[in-house]
Amino acid sequence: MLDISHHLWILAAALLLDAVVGDPPWLWRRLPHPVALAGRLIGGLDRRLNHEGDAPARRRAMGVATTLLLVLLAGGIGWGLSALLRVPFGWVLEIMVAAVFLAQRSLHDHVAAVAAACELEGLEGGRRAVSMIVGRDPQSLDMAGVCRAAIESDAENYSDGVFAPTFW
């Protein structure tokens, strides 16, 4: 049985690996990112099972079925990975898998790109860079607004990209 210090060590190493390496583009150009795969699966199930003309009871039943399928799939993948982690040096794989689901480096890189664009290209560059990470139209933002939008985006995405995968 593994104790809490093992899990904390794995978590610290995964956070460090993500901080140093992040999401290498050369890897994710060749392989689909697990988060993107999950999104595609959910979108496909939604298109297949959630039809506007269906009765509310059917839509609810399909939603429950989708949720059960996703939970069983995630549990099966987790069970399979836990079996793999029992091999010698399985902790290396555990660190790598955990790091894949962290996004601290990616968040940092996107906000740093906004800061660099503001410094090098001024307001228009900052607006262009911040448009890559926010959903709103940045054309009406002044420099303080661009910086605020980048910081807000970083804070909002931190919960999904770092906090939740770390503590869930």
Automatic annotation (TrEMBL):
Q: Which residues cross the membrane?
A: 61-81
Keyword list (alphabetical) reads: Cell membrane, Cobalamin biosynthesis, Membrane, Transmembrane, Transmembrane helix
Please give the InterPro entries that the UniProt record associates with this protein: Cobalamin_biosynth_CobD/CbiB (IPR004485)
Give the pathway annotation.
Cofactor biosynthesis; adenosylcobalamin biosynthesis
Q: Name one GO molecular function term.
A: threonine-phosphate decarboxylase activity
Where found in the cell? Cell membrane
This entry carries the following GO cellular component terms, namely: plasma membrane
Membrane topology field: Multi-pass membrane protein
Task: Tell me the Gene Ontology biological-process terms attached to this UniProt entry.
Answer: cobalamin biosynthetic process
Per the similarity annotation, which family is this?
Answer: Belongs to the CobD/CbiB family.
User: What's the name of the protein?
Assistant: Cobalamin biosynthesis protein
- Species the sequence originates in: Inquilinus limosus
